[in-house]
Amino acid sequence: MTASGSDHETAHVRTVRIASAEPPSERYRERYDQGAEMREYLGAIRERWRLIAASTLVAVLATLLVTKFIMTKWYRAVAIIRPVTVGSVQNRLSGLLGGLGGLGGAGGLANGLLSNEAANPASEYIPVLESFDFTTQLIAAHRLKPHLRESEWSLLGGSRGDPDWVRYRAMRKRFDCEFSIQTGNLTLHYQDPNRAMAGMVLSYYISDLRELLRHEEIHDTAEAIASLRGQIQHTADNLLQTQLYELLARQIQQQKLAQVQADFAFKVLQGPTVPDKPYRPQVVLDCIVAGALVSMLAGLVAVLKLESVSSA
Q1: Taking the model in full, what pTM does it have?
Q2: CATH class for domain 75-273?
């Protein structure tokens, strides 16, 4: 029994050894082939590392030369404004009307009317700043047509379409604005090859926006005043007349604020400022990107060349 048991054990060990000596399964053979193929690719890249390094160096130097000495340098002006909220307007009106007395009842009614407006006027400022009418009026008012280079209008030449739309698209490429929900500020940017001109044009955007909002406010309050006066003349109820007079007083005060207030509609937290360094091209970043792209392309060419040789 012992001898036969030991023989059986020996036979089992031999079977295990023979099984371990068998070739690997298809799955492991696939992995082995993939690893060998990857090693071949890396070897091809390693063999041509001098060519890849030289190509990368040439690409970086060429990009440095073009971005530093040939490409147009663009400066970006930055300004930050904060829209005046409805609450601020209400407080100013209340302060101006404090000496009139007896306005408690209608004051609540007027506050309710003002509160129906948008809580944050920035949602209205952005579409205005980016609109076709505002931009074309700004170009005409400040005589910016010669400043917009004709080469910027059409890269391919030929028909350029409506000149107003061409200039509008050129301005839209240079100007952008963004609103921050956290701070409630509106940040404006304008790019120009002339550093002084970048700040000047951005100041035009701010001043023209203020004047447009001021004009709209004066116009709206004038219509409201005329409507309230008409209602007062046709109202026999003394209580209702008193409330209408109080609303009329508020509209008049709001109109006066719009006419004389220096920071009407919004406050300029930071006037147009232009850093002394160009915003674009970004020389270092462009060189890094160019070097990375060329090195990857050179490595790909080496791999493709190995594939063509292997298939031949």
Answers
A1: 0.69
A2: alpha beta
